[in-house]
Amino acid sequence: MKIKLLVSAVVLSIGTIVNGVAFAQTPNNPTAPTNAQEAEKTNNIRQLLKITGAVNLSRQITAQLIDSLKVQNPEVPQKFWNNFANELKPDEMMNELIPIYSKYFTNKEITQMIAFYETPLGKKTISVLPQVSQEALAVGQKYGIAAAKRALQKLEADGYLRRP
User: Fold this and answer.
1) Full 3-state SS string of 84-123
2) What is the average pLDDT score of the chain?
3) Domain-by-domain residue ranges, the chain?
4) pLDDT in tens, 7-23
């Protein structure tokens, strides 16, 4: 059960990290694109993911997250962590992101994001995003643990939980 929880935490974190490059959502384009338009959009999404370093970012954050979870869960065997890390294939995951980006962004918006990420501010955003994500993850974990403790204390005070 604990391993399932760990895997869920890692998967959730990876998803959150990868989506860090998307700042807004827009509705689908009501006109149906042609195959050429769709191919251009797909290529632009690939370019956006490459420019933002989404694959490398997910690899870095995943490694950091696994290291943190290993320290917090020393009872989980190293073999699990090795197998789990080997099963994560960021390149394959990027292919799964293309339809998501396509759903929420028009080709024009994607090209505008590419233009932004090629600016000095865009490049800085990309360079500091791993650190921002890591620090935000630590804050989220700390906050979640504190909230869980408070909720358990309330359940205990109301008589729903008893400490052994």
Assistant:
1) HHHHCCHHHHHHHHHHHHHHHCCHHHHHHHHHHHCCHHHH
2) 81
3) 2-12+32-157
4) 555 555 555 545 454 44
